[in-house]
Queue: 2 jobs
Job 1
Amino acid sequence: MSNFPEDFRWGAATASYQIEGGTELDGRGVSIWDTFAATPGNVVNQENGSVACDHYHRYADDFKLMTELGIQTYRFSFAWPRFFPTGDSVREQRGFDFYDRLLDSMLEHGIEPMATAYHWDLPQALQDKGGWANRDTAYRLSDYTAALVEAYGDRISNWLTLNEPWCFSWLGYANGVHAPGVKNLDHAIAAAHHTSLAHGLASRAMKAVNGNIRTGIALNMTNYRIEDPNDPDLAELGGLLDSHINRWWLDGIVHGAYPQNLVDLYGDKLQKLVLPGDMDIVKVQTDVVGINYYSDSFVGLPKPTDKPMSEGGLFPFPQRSNGETPAPHTDMGWPITPEGLHDLPLRIARDWPEIKELAVTENGAAYPEGPDENGEVVDNRRVEYLTSHIEALGRAVAEGAPVKSYYAWSFLDNYEWAEGYAKRFGIVHVDFETQVRTPKDSAKAYASIIATQGDFSSLIKS
Ligand code: GCO
């Protein structure tokens, strides 16, 4: 018996810079990730997305493989620099034409699109003017997303404005481990506000073009497990972390206000950025919230590695976080905590009941397994990760969490940002020398889950 309703949708997710390649083709402009990857020391083996999975030329075969696995919906992202190479109003028609072909192929294969307008590949020309630390970028994103809906709103119903604004604000502008590699607290706080503004502006601009579409946002979220909730310092830190990762964008969208503990902490660094009327823009009808969930976070005794931001730490507050996390871990060093995908959707439904639909827009694990002597990819740990998380999600759905879809991250092994190609998240193996795709055992397990609508009783071998 499955916990998932008949209309629950099963998908897979990717992102433009991570799979497309073709970064020099058809007038595409330079993105901040091209620049960041070209800077020695930023990315493992100084790898970049110039070829990646060559999806730019192989998308039809990839969609064929998706249909063979029974994948019903595909979360992909548009590359802003293909449409507007310098981030202003100068259009590159070849970019529009490429995604026209890609979308038609997707639809011909019977796959329902979910489009992410921005998945981190900002035109470099905008970064040259400050990027997300510059308020104007929010308005440029709004114009860009309106142009996307004008071109594709007749074929795409489900749109996400931004992917993980926390990541590209704080990893990009606070500790600089992601593009554009800035290390500046003021810029990070500005990016955190301007991305909220961008979602509000873009959501309205997109619906003004086509009122039939649904707009959303994908947020990386987690459950903060505090080792000793009775420890006032840990409780305070857990509250700051929860506001920082989980509440900032959702409180803005739903309540038109940022979490008070961060407003107090940031003080004038934030107040000077928030102009009259901004929070009325930030507060916006959001039809679906995408949850990118990988693992829980543990707030406990300090670790020697905990550093303040001034020494490269990640958070703008006293670093007493991240106690030793329980094993086992994935190849990214993330603890494996499937119950978190039961708890988190229910927490969101409890704390933000105004959000009527949730989607798990990313969930998956990095493991290195490749083809064995028989050409099979036996990735039992990823099979276990996916089945345990989907089983936990099913219980949350049965308990009332309004989750309507699940997207495995990722369909293909791909460019894992600063890790380059060293970390493999795909349910399909990619040989980056030959571009040969090989469905892993996890792809076959996922196909079974889809075929049985997540009925694990039928999957558990008798
Ligand atoms: C993210 C991005 C993905 C990553 C994935 C694994 O969540 O960071 O959306 O592009 O590749 O999450 O880190």
Job 2
Amino acid sequence: MIGKLNHVGVATPSIDESVKMYREVLGATSITDKWAMPEQGVWVCFVNLPNSQIELIEPYGESSPIHGFLAKNPKGGQHHICFEVEDIIAARDDMKARGATVLGEPRIGAHGTPVIFIHPKDMGGMLVELMETPKGDHH
Ligand code: CO
């Protein structure tokens, strides 16, 4: 049911510092500007790779859901992995039917299409994001 790997989510205490590392150490050449997603409590930017993307997320506001992650991982680290699905509602219903814990309701993610998150306890310890494939977009 899962499709392409869309991105790997990486939490960081500073997107600016992380971008510098991706650019200067790893040699990434295509990196978006960062923007705020207040409803999700994050600043976000994407490092574009030939076959995928790295999503850098930094806390936005006091109630950001990634403060806890950064408290445990002060330098940041891999936070979630995102797979594409064709239909987010069907994916949510399938996940629930198969006993996985879906966190909240579908909401609009950083690519402008609906996403859901699946609790790591049902995903081998990994927070999984499922994202509806953008129509007509293959970045
Ligand atoms: Co993501």
